[in-house]
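Summary of Year 1 activities. Much of the first year was spent building the evaluation harness for sequence design. The harness presents a backbone, in tokenized form, and records the residue chosen at every position. We chose the following record to illustrate the format because it has been used consistently in internal testing since the harness was completed.
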């Protein structure tokens, strides 16, 4: 029996604790917040998008694609469902491959994991922020304000910088840097995009089911279809969150307001001025398109299919669902153990591996936890 400490009580930390405890290890979780799984309880707009049937390396971004692919190959989406259903519940995919609990409640997924941790008698220490990690008599010494403990192995699963209101503010990187690890450039993803405020003036609150393309230097980087919501500073919505993984400052978003209507049909339907767009687009949107097109019909037709917005940035980590960057996978072995300090492992978002919108990041949490648990069996 090994004594293993897990720093971070999010999805990766809880899953890793369950997997390790099931193998007979003595496991303790140290979570800085007052409750485990707060970010998990908000995933998928509160509905719990836990994985995706299309999981494959093509939906991920990392410094070590081969190593990432190896982790994913050892834990499929079916494995994720089997793991979750081993604790209870039913998990089903939707038409886009996103897998949810049948009850569509993310907090219930957290409750499943908490219940299993209790059954396995995993030590759960909340309100416990680890401020230092160093060598100790049993292998590692973990220190917090007012106390310390030791463990033979440590799993660092404290997240990245996204959604700091859940306690993931990036301070945990310093624990790894103590052992010589580096941290790549960090940026928010799965986040609202900023544009020139003048470009979206008068459109705030308008939501459309649209086609969205990300263009860079005239080349398409990504395309999808979904909700686009205009905000005071740019655009949000499902399609924008998905596109944010591929967009950078200076890229151009092209919005197709009527993806099901071919240009020829539009040309026959659109008349002159604002009234020429009645029953074609939202009246408020029609007024703004006419204003931008200076009433010119050909420009209105162009805007309906390719409305351009230049990306000036994002809304930041405070509004992001995931972090791009982190501890390089190149600084770990195939089991996600540090190449600088034996017995130190990394799971989840703290690593430089992030996935597209749609359950891919939670799948990385389960898969990286599984890789570590298999190595420590």
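For this record, the design step produced the sequence shown next.
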């Amino acid at each position: 029996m090994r004594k293993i400490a897990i720093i971070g009580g999010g999805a990766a930390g809880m899953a890793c604790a369950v997997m390790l405890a099931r193998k007979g290890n003595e496991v303790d979780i140290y979570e800085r917040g007052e409750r485990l799984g707060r970010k998990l309880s908000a995933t998928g707009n509160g509905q719990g998008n836990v994985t995706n049937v299309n999981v494959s390396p093509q939906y991920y971004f990392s410094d070590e694609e081969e190593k990432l692919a190896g982790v994913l190959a050892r834990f499929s989406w079916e494995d994720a469902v089997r793991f979750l259903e081993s604790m209870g519940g039913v998990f089903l995919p939707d038409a886009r491959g996103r897998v949810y609990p049948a009850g569509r409640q993310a907090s219930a997924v957290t409750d499943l994991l908490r219940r299993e941790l209790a059954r396995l008698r995993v030590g759960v220490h909340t309100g416990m922020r680890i401020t230092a990690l160093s060598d100790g008599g049993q292998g590692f010494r973990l220190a917090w304000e007012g106390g310390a403990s030791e463990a033979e192995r440590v799993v660092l699963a404290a997240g990245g910088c996204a959604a700091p209101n859940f306690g993931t503010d990036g301070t945990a990187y310093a624990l790894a840097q103590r052992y010589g690890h580096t941290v790549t450039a960090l940026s928010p993803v799965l986040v609202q995009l900023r544009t020139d405020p003048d470009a979206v003036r008068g459109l705030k609150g308008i939501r459309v089911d649209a086609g969205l393309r990300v263009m860079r230097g005239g080349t398409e980087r990504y395309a999808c279809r979904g909700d686009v919501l205009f905000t005071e500073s740019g655009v949000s919505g499902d399609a924008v969150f998905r596109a944010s993984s591929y967009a950078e400052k200076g890229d151009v978003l092209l919005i197709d307001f009527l993806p099901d209507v071919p240009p020829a049909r539009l040309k026959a339907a659109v008349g002159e001025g604002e009234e020429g767009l009645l029953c074609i687009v939202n009246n408020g949107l029609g007024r703004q398109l006419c204003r931008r097109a200076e009433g010119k019909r050909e420009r209105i037709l162009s805007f309906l299919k390719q409305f351009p917005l230049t990306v000036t940035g994002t809304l930041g980590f405070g509004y992001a669902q995931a972090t791009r960057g982190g501890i390089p996978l190149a600084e770990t072995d195939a089991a996600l153990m540090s190449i600088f300090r034996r017995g130190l492992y990394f799971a989840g978002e703290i690593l430089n591996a992030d996935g597209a919108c749609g359950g891919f990041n939670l799948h990385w949490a389960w898969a990286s936890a599984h890789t570590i648990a298999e190595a420590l069996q």
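The first strand starts at residue 3 and ends at 7. Quantitative recovery figures across the full test set are reported in Table 2.
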